Amino acid sequence: MARSGCIWSAGSMEKFEPQLAVDRAPAIWIGRNDGTGEQHLRWHQQVNRQPAGTPNGRRPAALLGFASDAGVLRNEGRVGAAQGPQALRAALGSLAIHEPRPLVDAGDIEVLGDELESGQERLAQSVSALLAGEMLPVVLGGGHETAYGSFTGLFKHFRDEPETRLGILNLDAHFDLRSAPRRTSGTPFLDIARDLQAEGRDFNYAVVGISKPNNTPVLFERARSLGVRYLLDEQCTAGQLPAVLGFVEDFLAGIDKLYLTIDLDVLPASVAPGVSAPAGFGVPLEVIHGLCATLAGSGKLALIDVVELNPGLDIDGRTARTAARLVNTLLGV
Q1: Annotated binding residue at 108?
Q2: Has 144 been labeled as part of a binding site?
Q3: Most buried among 41, 46, 87, 178, using CB within 10 Å?
Q4: What tens digit of pLDDT does each residue of 32-81 get?
Q5: What residue spans of the chain are helical by DSSP H?
Q6: Is 157 within any annotated ligand binding site?
Q7: What does it catalyze (predicted)?
Q8: At 62, is the secondary structure helix, strand, or coil?
Q9: What is the per-residue pLDDT across 260-302, written as a single tens digit (0 to 9) for each?
């Protein structure tokens, strides 16, 4: 069912068109309109409307939807994350642009029914193609099964550069290191660890926001055996922000390229009610936002995804609005 997608209707990106494996064309963006001058621009007026190039040396950012519930369903969670990409775009649409950069919408990969593995292959192919086009991919999930396809695309791109140290920073209440017969939203980082081990590559994985009551002793032991670094949610209060930033900066010092994955269930349920598994404690928004601001200026961001947005459960669109703010901060617009 895969079909090629086009990022811009014209320009140098056309040569990447056959490498993209999207199933749905880019969305029609709408939002508040205060005028057409640069001082009035909002996201919906910027996406897909700037020609290829890197003004002020800034890479284009490419949004890519991964409309999947399959991994959450396999993990016995609350489905609905397949609608996440469209809800997140809608929340981004009216945000104001202060520092213009090229923003493009590459469309959506759609997982129908239980066809998760083929969807992850298309996601990996598309992420790799966007990286080859010197873009910053921003994947909009989807459940956290998104992570396996996202990272696989990053690894494909850097596979012939073994000296490049890849790192994964997961903002999440869960390790997602479960072992299961098939991939689920709870297995992606164990699946990635096994793939890297088979390739003789290091597994550099850190998690901020782990909920001790929501991860079994088996998962903590697995994290220890894999050398995973982590902070518990209780170690990530607003007053502990300097320590959290120090933890992340230490992690960044040991890698060259960062894959940042944000599971919105890391946030308190009052801020992010529209997720597959709402947090009973959670990491305050000001801490997560502070991390995103730091990472945006690190120079090491190679790939971003935001997952587990479940619009059908999202009271007043709180979760989508919060996710949009984080994406906006990460892209520095």
Answers
A1: no
A2: yes
A3: 87
A4: 888 877 788 899 999 987 544 556 678 899 999 999 999 999 999 899 99
A5: 43-46, 70-74, 84-92, 116-132, 146-158, 188-198, 217-225, 241-253, 285-296, 318-331
A6: no
A7: N-formimidoyl-L-glutamate + H2O = formamide + L-glutamate
A8: strand
A9: 999 999 999 999 999 989 999 999 999 999 999 999 999 999 9
